[in-house]
Amino acid sequence: xxxxxxxxxxxxxxxxxxxxxxxxxxxxxxxxxxxxxxxxxxxxxxxxxxxxxxxxxxxxxxxxxxxxxxxxxxxxxxxxxxxxxxxxxxxxxxxxxxxxxxxxxxxxxxxxxxxxxxxxxxxxxxxxxxxxxxxxxxxxxxxxxxxxxxxxxxxxxxxxxxxxxxxxxxxxxxxxxxxxxxxxxxxxxxxxxxxxxxxxxxxxxxxxxxxxxxxxxxxxxxxxxxxxxxxxxxxxxxxxxxxxxxxxxxxxxxxxxxxxxxxxxxxxxxxxxxxxxxxxxxxxxxxxxxxxxxxxxxxxxxxxxxxxxxxxxxxxxxxxxxxxxxxxxxxxxxxxxxxxxxxxxxxxxxxxxxxxxxxxxxxxxxxxxxxxxxxxxxxxxxxxxxxxxxxxxxxxxxxxxxxxxxxxxxxxxxxxxxxxxxxxxxxxxxxxxxxxxxxxxxxxxxxxxxxxxxxxxxxxxxxxxxxxxxxxxxxxxxxxxxxxxxxxxxxxxxxxxxxxxxxxxxxxxxxxxxxxxxxxxxxxxxxxxxxxxxxxxxxxxxxxxxxxxxxxxxxxxxxxxxxxxxxxxxxxxxxxxxxxxxxxxxxxxxxxxxxxxxxxxxxxxxxxxxxxxxxxxxxxxxxxxxxxxxxxxxxxxxxxxxxxxxxxxxxxxxxxxxxxxxxxxxxxxxxxxxxxxxxxxxxxxxxxxxxxxxxxxxxxxxxxxxxxxxxxxxxxxxxxxxxxxxxxxxxxxxxxxxxxxxxxxxxxxxxxxxxxxxxxxxxxxxxxxxxxxxxxxxxxxxxxxxxxxxxxxxxxxxxxxxxxxxxxxxxxxxxxxxxxxxxxxxxxxxxxxxxxxxxxxxxxxxxxxxxxxxxxxxxxxxxxxxxxxxxxxxxxxxxxxxxxxxxxxxxxxxxxxxxxxxxxxxxxxxxxxxxxxxxxxxxxxxxxxxxxxxxxxxxxxxxxxxxxxxxxxxxxxxxxxxxxxxxxxxxxxxxxxxxxxxxxxxxxxxxxxxxxxxxxxxxxx
Amino acid sequence: xxxxxxxxxxxxxxxxxxxxxxxxxxxxxxxxxxxxxxxxxxxxxxxxxxxxxxxxxxxxxxxxxxxxxxxxxxxxxxxxxxxxxxxxxxxxxxxxxx
Amino acid sequence: xxxxxxxxxxxxxxxxxxxxxxxxxxxxxxxxxxxxxxxxxxxxxxxxxxxxxxxxxxxxxxxxxxxxxxxxxxxxxxxxxxxxxxxxxxxxxxxxxxxxxxxxxxxxxxxxxxxxxxxxxxxxxxxxxxxxxxxxxxxxxxxxxxxxxxxxxxxxxxxxxxxxxxxxxxxxxxxxxxxxxxx
Lengths: 1005, 98, 183
Fold this sequence. Notes:
The complex is a heterotrimer.
Chain A: E1 14-23, E2 26-32, H1 36-42, E3 49-50, E4 57-58, E5 71-74, E6 81-85, E7 95-99, H2 113-116, H3 125-130, H4 137-147, E8 162-174, H5 178-189, E9 194-197, H6 213-229, E10 233-236, E11 239-245, E12 249-255, E13 271-283, E14 287-289, E15 302-304, H7 305-313, E16 322-327, H8 332-341, E17 345-350, H9 357-365, E18 369-372, E19 374-380, E20 387-393, E21 400-408, E22 411-415, E23 418-420, H10 423-427, E24 432-435, E25 440-443, E26 454-456, H11 466-483, E27 526-528, E28 533-534, H12 535-543, H13 549-556, H14 569-580, H15 584-587, H16 601-605, H17 622-627, E29 631-635, E30 638-643, H18 651-664, E31 666-670, E32 675-680, H19 684-691, E33 704-710, E34 716-726, E35 729-734, H20 739-753, E36 760-763, E37 768-774, H21 778-783, E38 800-805, E39 808-813, E40 822-828, H22 832-842, E41 848-850, H23 853-862, H24 897-900, H25 903-906, E42 911-918, E43 930-932, E44 943-953, E45 958-966, E46 975-979, E47 985-991
Parallel strand pairs in A: 1-7, 8-9, 8-13, 9-10, 13-26, 15-22, 16-17, 16-22, 17-18, 31-41
Antiparallel strand pairs in A: 1-2, 3-4, 5-6, 5-7, 11-12, 12-13, 14-23, 19-20, 20-21, 24-25, 27-28, 29-30, 31-37, 32-35, 32-36, 33-34, 34-35, 37-40, 38-39, 39-40, 42-45, 42-47, 43-44, 43-46, 44-45, 46-47
Chain B: E1 3-6, E2 10-13, E3 18-22, H1 36-44, E4 52-58, E5 66-72, E6 78-83
Antiparallel strand pairs in B: 1-2, 3-4, 4-5, 5-6
Chain C: E1 14-17, E2 20-24, E3 29-34, H1 40-50, E4 61-63, E5 67-73, E6 76-81, H2 85-96, E7 100-102, E8 107-113, H3 117-122, E9 139-144, E10 147-155, E11 159-165, H4 169-180
Antiparallel strand pairs in C: 1-2, 2-8, 3-6, 3-7, 4-5, 5-6, 8-11, 9-10, 10-11
Helix pairs in contact in C: 1-2
C-alpha cells in the first residue's frame, strides 16, 4: 500500500524527489516537502502514538507546532530525540522514527489497560495517591514513569554542535505569514533594521494551506525576494521565537540542519539559539484552531479542520476519503469544499442553526450534506474513527435529542473557532482582553508593558482574513519602524486575497453534550490530548474546590504537557466558566510561559559547552607545568599544579616527597594566580587602614605586611600581604579565589562611600608571573640569578627588593607561606616562561623541587597558617582564629570593627581554631569530621566542632589537623573524640596550631 | 533581561552588570556608640519594597563604576540610573521622596 | 645565558579562514592612567607625554601613531605606547599626582579582520556592533563569553582589536575558533 491517500496532483511537495523513511520498523515513501505526519497520512497511517495516561490510540490532529498527539521518538542512539512532533519534522532520506509510550507495540499496547481503569485515574490522582507515605514515592515513581510517560532521553553524549548568538534590530517580526511579511516589508521600507522569523521551512503561514497556494507562493516569493535584497534585513526561517523577556529580549531557536538528518550538517551547527534585542517587536504569530470537545474526540482520524485543509492543499494528502466536518463557525466550510474538490465524500455537521444561504448554496453545488443544529454524539472505531453518530442539539445546546444518524467516515475535521496566539504578547508582560465576537482572548495593547514595546498584527490580533492581516501588518511595520526612529518614506505593500472563508459569526459550544451527564458513561471528552485531561476532570476539580484557574491547571495538569495547551487552554477555561456560571474573562487565563515550543538544552548552551563551558584560566608558566607532568587542580577558574608525581608515584608519595624537599633543600611553586592590586594616591594608606584590621601608617617603603580583611559582620573574608612600593604606592595581594571579590570590595567603598579620597586601584593580577621559592637553599639559588643583594641583613624577612632575576626585571618579595626562607619572584608575565625555565636549570645543583598546591597546603598547615575559605567559612572572627595579634587595639575605625563588639561575636564558646593530634599518629582525620561532646551508639551526637584541615605531615612525622572547636583555645591539652561515619571513634589531643618550627626560626634564616 | 543605562557608558545588556542591593545606606560614623540593634540594622536590614527601589549597580564588564538606579521591582522598569554623587531622582507620582 | 625570550599567550596560534582572520599583535606596552581628565595637570600631561591634544568621548579611542589612547571610564584611560612605559609612568605621576600603572602584560590584543568579524564576536558579546552603533574610532568594554574584553573598531571593513586579560586569552581564542565555523 503505497501512498494510498496521496492525491494525484497538487500540493507543494516535490514529486520528483521520493524519500524513503521508517516508522515503527516499516519502510514508507514520501516526497521532498513532506513532514513525517503528512507522509504517514499519505501512506494511510493514522495511528501515530499512544496517549500519556490512558495509552489511547492517537493520530495527528494538527499540521503545525500545536500538535499534541503525534509525538515520536526521532532517530536512534546518540541522535535520538524524544517527543518530537511528527507535524514539524521535515522528511529526509533515511529518517527513522518510532511511536512512543506503547509496549510492546503501537497496535497492541498493554498499558491501554490504564484506559480500563480510567475511573481510578482522574484529576489529582497523583496527588491523592502518591503523597503518603513519602517513603513510598520511590516505589510509585517507577510505576508512574513506566505507565505514563513520553519518549526516552538519549544516554550518550550529544554528538551535535550548537551555536548561540546575540542579534540586534530595530524591528523584530515574529511570524512570517501575510501579516508578518507585510510588516517586515513596511518596516524595512522605512529604513529599519529588520529581523523576520518563521518557524516553518517556508514563509507564508496560513496561505500555504489554501487551495490557491500556488498564487500565494508567488506573492510570498516576490515579497521575500525584495526583503532579501536589503542588507538591513535578516530572514530566519525554521526559527521559532521561544521566549519574550524584559526590554524586548527575545530568544529564538533556529533549526539549521535538522531537516538534513543527523550528521548531515557538515560544519554547520545543528541548531542556533538567537538572543535578540529589538527596539520594537511586531508579533504576527497567527492563531490556532480549537477542537470541539465531544465524546471520544481523540480517535485517530479526528483532526482540526484547518489541518485537513493543509494536508490536502500543501501536502497533496487526503486524510480520509469520507470526511465529516464538525464546526461551530464558518471557517471550516472552506475545508469541506477543499476536501470535496479533492474527491472526498463530505458531510458538514454544524452546531448552529443559522448557516448563511451563501454557504449552504456552496455546499449544495458540491453535493455536500449539511446537518444544522446537530452535533456528534458518539464515535465508533478504536484505532481510528470508522463512523460517527450525530444527533440534534437542544435549543440551549445542553442536551441532544431525536434520532441518532450514523455517518461512515475516516476523518473528522473539527473547528471550535480560532484562538489568537497571544503567547509572545503575554510573555512580554502584556494583558489580554476577551473579545466576545471571536470568542477568544486578544492582546490589550493599552496594557502592554512599557519596557516591551510591541504591536500585534494579523490573526494573533483577532482579524482573520488575509487582506485584513496584510493591512494590519503594514500598519504595524510602519509604526514599529517609526517608534524605533526610522521614518523613511512609507512604502506601499501589495495586498493579496485567497480562497478562504473567515470564522464569521461563531456560536461557542464549549462542551458537546452526550446522552450521559459529563463523566458518566464510557466516552471521554478530551480537551487536553497530550496530558489526557477530560471535561470530567474539570468538573471534578470544580467539585473539589480547585476553581482558581492556576489551581485548575495544576490539579488537572491541563496545559502542562510539552504543547503547553495550545489547543486546549481556552476550552478548559470555558468549561470551568460554564461550571461556575461566570464569564470566561472572570475565570482568567493562566500565565503563558517560555518556551513557546520545546527546545533543545544543547542549543541554549550553544558553543559554551565542554572546554568553553567555564573559562579555564592559565598562568604564563602553564606549558612548563604540563611538560613537568603536573596534575592540575581547579582553583576558582584557574588551573594550578596540584602535585607533580615522578614515575610510579601516587599523589600521597608525591606530596610527601615535595613537602620534605621544601624543608630540606628548596621547592618552587607557581604563585601567579594570587590576586594583585596596585594601589596609588595620597589617601592609599587610609584605604588600607580601613580594609585591614591592623596598622599601616608606619609601614616603611620596601616593607611587606600581612593583613586580614573583615566584612561588616566582623567575619574574615580575605587575607594577603601588602607591600609599600613608594610614597602613596602599595602592592596588595589577595587569595587566588578572592581576587575579584577584594577588588570589588575596595572599589565599592571608594566609589560609593569615600569618593573624595584620592586612591586608584588597578588589578595587576596577570601583569606579574610569580614563582615562590621556599627552603633553606632558596637564598643560594636566588643569589645565582640576581643582581639584588640577598644577604640576610640587606634583604630581611618581610621586605621587597627590585632588580633583575635571570636577566629580567623583577620585584622579589621575601615573604613566606611555608615558614621557610622564602622569596616570591615577580616578573612581567611575558617573562614568566623564561623565569621558570631559568630557575629550573639553575636549581638543579640545589635539588630544586617543583611542588603544587597540595604540598603548599601541607606546608602551611604545619605552620598553622590559615586558608581563608577552608579554615574559615564566613562565620569566624580573628579572635575565633586565635589571631588577636593582628587586630589593632589603637585604630579608631576599620571595616568590621564594630561587629567585633557585638554580643554574639564576644560570647563564650564560639568555635575557635586549634590544632589536633590524633592518639594514633597514622590516622589522618577526614576534613569535616565532627568533634563530639559525647560518643553515642549512633548519630545524632552533640557536635562541638569540626576538622577544617588535615594532612599527613612528613616534617612533623605524623598526622596533623586544624579544627574549629567550641571554646577551643581554653581546651588546649584536653583530649576530644571524633566520631566517623562508619562508627569508628578517634581520640585526639587539642594543641596549638603550629606543628613545625614553633619558634619561627627558619623563616628568618 | 534588562537593558541598563550606565551613566558613563550608555545602554548595555544586563549581563554586563551586577546588582549590589539597596543604595543610600551610608556607613555610620558613630560606630563606637551604636547599640547592637542599631548596628544590626545597618548591616543586616534592608527595605524590600514591592514597587520603586533605589539600588546600587556595578558595570562589571564595562567601566567598572558603581552607580545607582531607581527601579520598580514589579515591572522592572528603570525610572532612572544616576551617578553616586547625583541627587536622587523623584519616584514617579511621589512628590515627597528625596 | 641566551637573552630572555618574550612570550605572549597566543603567539603560537592564529586563525586565517575565508572571511575571518585573528592574529595576536604580540607584546604591546600599556599603561593604565587615572585622574580627573578635565584638570589642567592631566590635560597637560596628556599633551606633553603622549602628544594627545584633546580628551576622549566615552567609548572612543584616538591614535597618533606613537600612542593610542582608549577611554575606559570617567577617570580612567588606557594607553598603548611605543615608548618606555616606565618613563611615562613616573612623569605622569610627577606631573599629575594621580595614578599610572604598567599593565603591559595584564592583557593581550588580537587583531580581527574580515567580513565575519561582527558575526563571530556577536556569538559571545551582547553589544550591538552594527556600524550605526559601533563605527571606526569607537571602543567598548563588554563581555565575550565569560571574559571581559575591550573591543575597538579600527576600520569599518571591518578591522577590530580585542583586548583580553592574559589568563582568559586562550579561552577567548578557543571560543572564537569554535564559532568561526558556525557563522
